[in-house]
Amino acid sequence: MEQTQTKKVYILGGGFAGIRVAHLLSDSGKDLEINLIDRHPYHINAPVLYEIANAFVPWELEAVGRVLTDVATAPYAKIFDGTSVNFMQGVISGIESKTGKFYLTDGHTETPDFMIISLGSQAQTSDTPGANNHAFTLRGLDDAVALRKHIISLFLRYRVASLMAQQKAFTFVIAGGGPTGVEYASELALFVKKLCRLHRVASDIPKIILCEETDYVLHACPGMLRNIGHERLRKLGVQMRAHTKVVTVHSDGVEIAGGVIIPTFTTVWLAGTRVNDVLLRSNFPLNTTGGLVTDKNLVVSGSTNIFVAGDCTYFIDPITGKVAPDVAWAALQQAEVVAENIIRRLEERPLMSYFSNHRPLLIAVGGKFALARIGPFQFSGLLAWVVKQLADLRYLWSILPNMMAVRYWMKSLRVKISND
Ligand SMILES: Cc1cc2nc3c(=O)[nH]c(=O)nc-3n(C[C@H](O)[C@H](O)[C@H](O)COP(=O)(O)OP(=O)(O)OC[C@H]3O[C@@H](n4cnc5c(N)ncnc54)[C@H](O)[C@@H]3O)c2cc1C
After folding, report:
1. Among 159, 311, 403, 410, which residue's CB has the most CB atoms within a 10 Å radius?
2. What is the C-alpha separation between 233 and 236, in angstroms, rounded?
3. pLDDT digits (tens, 9 = 90+) for 80-91
């Protein structure tokens, strides 16, 4: 009797997309050796990073560090406990686009039968002089912790200083007025208010300036929600500057269009993302903004068994003509299609197509307030915030064991309301 060989699957990157594919393949009961590789021993829950960066938690510093780490990270050993997924910690340094052979920095190489590229994206800092060196980003836990420490240290250092020194120290510039920039800026406003009260700094000194290159902050939001978002930001004291491109970032200021310099020690870069460096080096078909181009089945264009899911994907929906967004629900949807298509390949059935036309929009705007568009419904305020928290729980449920997801979610709620 002919013996079928166990197929080797390698999932590169353990974010929302990678973990979900791993679980689905493990549950499928197919004869697969499933391996997931990530550079960290834990998954980072990116949607809570801006809350970590702004967490006002009155515990002693060491304990705070631990609590914040616990909220943002989930160890892969626990995530895959009781499944058939092997986790390997390693840094992928390159992938041969023709053969699918990939390399780790420790010299290890593999040529899988099926590969899933789910390496996420990186902050798009390289096009703006000084941004790489002088701007804070929010891509990992270390970024969030460093930004939080920096802001706290500014208050410790400048709580007693001249007005001019305080005005510079307490000016915070955020580049990028999309959802992430808005979520960060609005929570920062509440964090800064708490720090002002704690350090007896006059509350009218700090300035939070949100710079957006296009016509509007929240330009991708429907008009009504955008207006509500603007009103909320104004109420929180965030200054919105549309048509304002950040041109250069220095250690003590930013230059914006028109040669105007804003003195500041804090520029936070939330203006777009680009594809992971590994893919840039690997000769894959990338679009001009850097996404990995796929066909309708989420197979990398020009290959057979290399699939892609999550933020590193560049996919234009055939119905809406819009690019699939870099958000958790899209990563999870793509993971479902990729897992199903690997099973169909094994069964020699036609592959399924991906559509990204279901587009919920949920944006937190400081405290227990959010903007929501779900299907035909648009609403804002506390109800939208509750819906956003439930959506976050659902994302966690898709990748973590049930009780672990609930525990993480509860811990993250505690940090989320720390500025209220
Ligand atoms: C600050 C912030 C807030 C956000 N808020 C929201 C939100 O409120 N709602 C929402 O839906 N989405 C939000 N997003 C977007 C959401 O987090 C992403 O869309 C989602 O994480 C994408 O999942 P992914 O699996 O594609 O990539 P990621 O989750 O980024 O995972 C990629 C993985 O690849 C690993 N990796 C990368 N390079 C290498 C390498 N060379 N070697 C080994 N491993 C590597 C990384 O360690 C990481 O674990 C937010 C993102 C950020 C940054």
Report:
1. 311
2. 5
3. 999 999 999 999
